[in-house]
Amino acid sequence: MLASILASGLAMGAVYALIGITYNTMFSASRVVSFTAGQLGMLGGVFGSLFVLRLGMPMIIGLLFTFACCAIIGVITEFVAVRPVLKSLDQHLYVLSTLALALMIQQVTAIEWSTEPQPFPRIFGIGSGGITDERFWLPIVACAATIIGLELLYRRTLIGHAFLAIAEDNFAARALGLPERNLRIASYALAGMIGALAGFSGGALLLAFVANGFLLNFYGFIPVALGGLGNNRGAIVGGFALGIFQQTANFLVGGIFSSVVVFVIFIILLLAAPQGLFGASATRRV
Amino acid sequence: MHISAAELLLDVKGLNAGYGKIVVLHGVDMVVRSGEVVALLGPNGAGKTTLLRAVSGLLPWNTGSVHFGGRSLQGAGPRETARMGLVHVVEGHRVFTQQSVTDNLLLAAYDLQRGERTARIEEALSYFPEIAAKRRDPGSALSGGQQQMLAVAQGLVRRPRLLMLDEPSAGLSPVLVDRVLTVVAKLRESGTAVLLVEQLIEKALAVADRVYALAQGHVVLNAITSETDLPRRLEQAYFGSHNAATAHG
Amino acid sequence: MQGVAMAGTTAKGTNYASVAWSQFVPLVVVFVLAIVVPFVSNDYWVLIATRAAVYWVLVSGLNLMIGFAGQLAIGYVALLTLGAYTTSVLAAGNVMPPVNPFIALGIAGLGGSVFGVIVGLPALRLRTFYFAISTLGFATIVTQIALAWQSVTGGGIGLPGPEFPAPLNTHWGFYYFCLAIAAFCTWMTYNVSQSRFGRALIAVRDADVAAEATGISKPRLLIVVFLFCGAVAAVAGGLFASLQTYITPEAFTFDLSVLFFIAVLIGGRGSILGPLLGTVILTLLPEFAAPLAAWSTFLYAVLLLVIVLAAPGGIAALLDFKSRNPLQSNRAIVPRPALLDDVLDARTSGGTIALLNVMLSFGGVRAVDGVDLNIRPGEIHGLIGPNGSGKTTILNVISGFYRPEAGQVTFGGVPLDLGKPETRAARGIARTFQTPRIIGEASVLQNVMIGGTIRGRATFAETLLLLPRHRRDEAMLRKVALQALGSVGLESLADVRADRLQHSELRFIEIARALMSQPAFLLLDEPAAGLAADEILRLGQFIQEIVRRGVGVMLVEHHADLIFDICHHVTVLNLGRVLASGTPAEIRVHKEVVSAYLGG
To answer: Which residues does chain A have within 8 Å of residue B96's beta carbon, measured at their own beta carbons?
Structure first.
């Protein structure tokens, strides 16, 4: 039992952590928290199922197409919902524009794809349903690969350095002559791919289900809220903690009440530390 | 007083700029010639930083004209102006503290050809041996003065024709201020023009060829640094022509 | 800047009656049309109209929360669910003997109040996106509970909605019942929109720092709004249950939350008519676009995106023809200080504001390093110094936005509450800001009236019901605000949207707003920045007139001319310490001051 909770908890936690990283990547580039993060996760599963199961593509090709489509959606987010509102002093506009876009994505998927959960292909065919089944370790591997990949990107490549620069001090980066707009677009494309990976690797657990969109928006945001916006390490710790906590609660009090428990704990933690447990303190208002 | 007919590098005419509804600069005229050091002085809120930001493209401006090397800078952003040879080192020694000195300089070299980057970085570091020694350290490990030197080095990576420095002395000890201003003098010798915004008037005048003073968004003084009545004129520019003896009703 | 001085002319449209009518009449028209609906259509449309009325009952309250207070509650269907189930369970008699449906509705309203506060409370601590997500969580939870608590709610099977006695159990009867409740809610929220509560909400939304400085307490204000919103939303839930005749958890979808939320936003913030039209449009949309019914939520989202990007003011802004009238150019600001006698009429006087050894650091930097300062009534005290000297920090400490680490700040010998800016207005200290903090979407007059919020006496309930004390408040605030505007010479612009004004006019409006609370002390933060030379002269004269009536002024400034012209006393700060203190004449020739400015 414990092993099962651990396996499913870590697996779901990895998915949540990846969505958290999606949020963070978009935030670091633009200071915008975008509702499309959860939708990208959902699309990772939907596109995976569409390309591989329905259209019969080989797994790798399906994955690449999924990355491409979600990267495009990430870029669309930047063009349509982020860039136009960045200039406005109105804080809440980006919440509305990204929410509108997320709703549009969800509705199109619900109508064109399906409102019911659809099956997701088995990728390697390893494991036979026990705790070593691929649906448990795939998300974890994907999460680890993402972390390593991002580390390499940020530490070893110039464009990665540029991403960090934009995140740390947008104004200084602009003054230095860095191509701020292009870097932001690239960040959103990257975020799209990370979201896609979350949905694709978690496809066996979550299935290709349109309702995953707002589910992931919520559960994927908790690691960010706890770890602090822009803090990927916090998101990973928060994601795994949430995953295990949720599965434990599932086991102890059953599915429906576990979401109540998770939510109540979340609200309490957030009210106690609005900037996150590891987050930076708020900027001065006056 | 004969002014040399060196090429007009920066030509600002009738510039109006501001933030939102607040107009800060009112019809500013200014020129910088190749190879000269121009000091820009003035009390707080006068618009010195605003002027630099408008010229380098960080701040959109409304009316007037700005030409660099004969080309109009209308609509150009900091990336374009830097490519043309106009480099702006902003106030507050804002370097990227999470990254190493070398990475900071690499970022400054972002737009250069890959092969050239290393050479330019070494070139920039040669002006500041203190930070060359710390090239692997993160920006956060540098003192304020060293961060300022790094910021100037970032500007030098682009081999600018005109380098604009916004209050490089702010928060620095006198020794470090002198270090930075020595570099300004060296740049002048190598033919780089410098536009220097400064609070420390005496030090700025010591290194500059000409001086402008800005007050409330207007140019109130335009002189050569060798003029003798400069201190009095500066005090007037800062404190207005208010007569000290006026009684208060 | 020469121009036509507007001194002496009365403004067009400051006639109270005409402004109020232009906003109220369209609402009346909508309801008159609604009354006619059953006579010109069939039962089907009556049902649709009933649905729109029920939705509007909820949205009218949600409008105050989202449109006025700016709190993005996107999961408000939770309240609808709660109200629906409470009413149905009580009326059906699942847990206790059946309750009269009207009483059940009332109890649901009470429960909704409480739950509305619970759902809204996080807004006081969380940033916009976080709060929005938390309301999503509430919506999910309520639905989950409805699903799980089978013994009471019938779980997935659901239960019948409440049935009202004749004649309300017919389509027409029930329609008019819902319409009456909707009309009542419209009237109540309209009253709020024309009150100091409505203005305070908008201030909290758009200029929260200025709101605090005028004494508005955000928590108290929001809690009262949450109580109201929750109550009407729950009542709407009860009506909804009756309309549906049978409810299951599936009836309360996220799509409904989206509809409510978007109705407010496409209607336009700060308006009653806009969201009302928005609700009607969104309810009717699926009916007219029948083949596209499945796409209705998609269309709502597209509408939202279009509004956000192209017309952030929504329907209300599109209908606002008045604000398209061109303003006169070359306007001059000509203050009429004589009006100050009326404005500053019953002012509290107090003693001196005294700072003793105040210290404050930011990060590792000592911004204020042991400052002593005394600001006396009837005096203009200038505070100057180079950048980073701490002058604005001092002003922020006095006005309560920063809490010093050490030292005392007293007013008339009594310590001021440190770090609590909302207490200053009541103590008689008002301020302006370096960049004017004005509500662009509100009129100039409304902006100024906000300054007098704490002078109102009526409670929220009295405001909802338009009781006499509220009407007296409004009349008083309006009168004083017009006088304050007149004193700065801007009364001709009273009904103009504030974001159409020039920067210099906004500065004077901030001063008029500050005068509304009849302060004993006025703290001015670089008021001359961005003003033309003649405007600075008039500003100086105006400040002198204010001080002549016994008010004390602290003037933080860069403009040396202004300081030396009008100040009685000048304190010079440098690097967080007092460098010199004395009369302007003494300061002007003080060697250290000159060299501090000129460096070296």
So the answer is: 164-165, 168-169, 172-173
Rounded Cα gap, residues C373 and C192, in angstroms: 42
CA pair distance C10, B246, nearest whole angstrom: 39
Work out the widest C-alpha separation in chain B, in whole angstroms.
Answer: 70
Dihedral sign from CA coordinates of A199, A202, A207, A212: negative
Which chain C residues are within 8 Å of A214, Cβ to Cβ? 136, 254
Residue that has been written with the tokens 């389509």 in this structure: C171
Per-residue pLDDT tens digits for C502-548: 999 999 999 999 999 999 999 999 999 889 889 999 999 999 999 99
| Total-model pTM | 0.90
Give SS3 for C401.
coil
β-bridge pairing C569-574 and C380-384 = parallel
Sequence-ordered alpha helix ranges (H) in chain A: 2-30, 36-48, 59-76, 83-86, 93-112, 134-156, 158-168, 170-175, 180-201, 203-206, 212-227, 232-253, 255-272
**CB spacing of C598 vs B44 below 8 angstroms:** no
Per the model's pLDDT, the better-predicted residue between C442 and C292 turns out to be C442
The encoded tokens of residue C287 equal 């009916």
Cα C385 to Cα C367: distance, rounded to the nearest angstrom:
13
Q: Is residue B66 within 8 Å of B56, Cβ to Cβ? A: no
Residues 6 or more apart whose CB falls under 8 angstroms from that of C138 comprise A263, C75, C78, C119
**Beta-ladder partners of C523:** C431, C554
> For residue C427, which amino acid is it?
R
Question: CA C17 to CA A147: how far, in whole Å?
Answer: 65
d(CA A82, CA A188): 10
Under the banding of pLDDT at 50, 70 and 90, the label for residue A258 is confident
Give me the phi and psi of B8, to 5 degrees please.
Answer: -75, 110
B4 closest CA partner among B25, B24, B27, B32: B32
Burial zone of C146 (CB within 10 Å; 0-12 exposed, 13-18 middle, 19+ buried): buried
- Is the pLDDT reported for residue B243 higher than 50? no
CA C598, distance to chain mean position in Å, is: 44
Task: Kindly report the nearest CA distance between residue C2 and chain A, in angstroms.
Answer: 33
Q: How many CB atoms lie within 10 A of CB C372?
A: 15
Tally of residues, chain A: 286
Sequence-distant (≥ 6) Cβ neighbours of residue C581 within 8 angstroms: C569, C570, C571, C572
Residues C306-323 have a mean pLDDT of: 87
CA triple C304-C309-C310, angle to 5 deg: 100
ipTM, two decimals: 0.91
Sheet holding C521-525, edge to edge: C429-431, C521-525, C552-556, C380-384, C569-574, C577-582
DSSP secondary-structure letter at C502? -
Q: Let me know the angle formed at the C-alpha of C584 by C579 and C586, rounded to the nearest 5 degrees.
A: 65
Backbone phi, psi, residue B164, to 5°: -105, 120
Write down the pLDDT at residue C321: 81
> Which residues make Cβ contacts (< 8 Å) with residue C159, sequence separation at least 6?
C88, C89, C92, C94, C153, C246, C247
Reported as half-sphere exposure (CB side, CA atoms, 13 A), residue C115 has a value of: 27
C426 contact partners, CB below 8 Å, separation of at least 6: C215, C454
Which residues of C have a CB under 8 Å from any CB of A?
70, 72, 74, 122, 125-130, 132-134, 136-138, 140-141, 144-145, 147-148, 208-209, 254, 258, 265, 294-295, 297-298, 300-302, 304-305, 308-309, 312, 396, 401-402, 433
Sign of CA dihedral C78, C83, C88, C93: positive
**Two structure tokens written together for C245:** 């005749």
Scan residues 426-455 of C and list those with Cβ closer than 8 Å to B.
435
Q: Are strands C380-384 and B193-197 parallel, antiparallel or unpaired?
A: unpaired
